[in-house]
Amino acid sequence: MPATFIRRIASPKKAVTGLAVAAATAGMALTAAPAHAATTSSAADAKAIAKQMIPDSAQYNAFSKIVQHESGWDVDATNPSSGAYGLVQALPGSKMASAGSDWKTNAKTQIEWGLNYMNDRYGSPAGAWDFWQANGWY
């Protein structure tokens, strides 16, 4: 859309209506962007969330070691070979949807799923870390 066409409009509703009419005239479709949950953009943020969720220091340390090895605390980490995804490298990543629909971007959701997985399969993050040390995976 040329810059000369854009002008200041008094109300946001009129602006959206005007933009929709202009887009329709140009043969374009406007769609609403989906709402997204808050994302965690840094390893420090993810670690702080995990620390709050895992108050026992031994369990937090075990969880942290696994996450450091698996993803480097990168919420978006993807294993190019297996497709495992996220902080805890769930395979497939979509398993984490059981903890929340924002599993692709939200560290808290990924941590919650990872804790549940470690507790269910190994009894605790420490148990998962013991297994990881013996096998190089968990």
Automatic annotation (TrEMBL):
> Where in the sequence is the signal peptide annotated?
1-37
The cross-references to Pfam families, in alphabetical order and at most eight, read: SLT (PF01464)
**UniProt keyword annotations, A-Z:** Signal
Q: Where is the Transglycosylase SLT domain?
A: 59-129
Protein name, please?
A: Transglycosylase SLT domain-containing protein
Q: Which organism does this sequence originate in?
A: Streptomyces broussonetiae
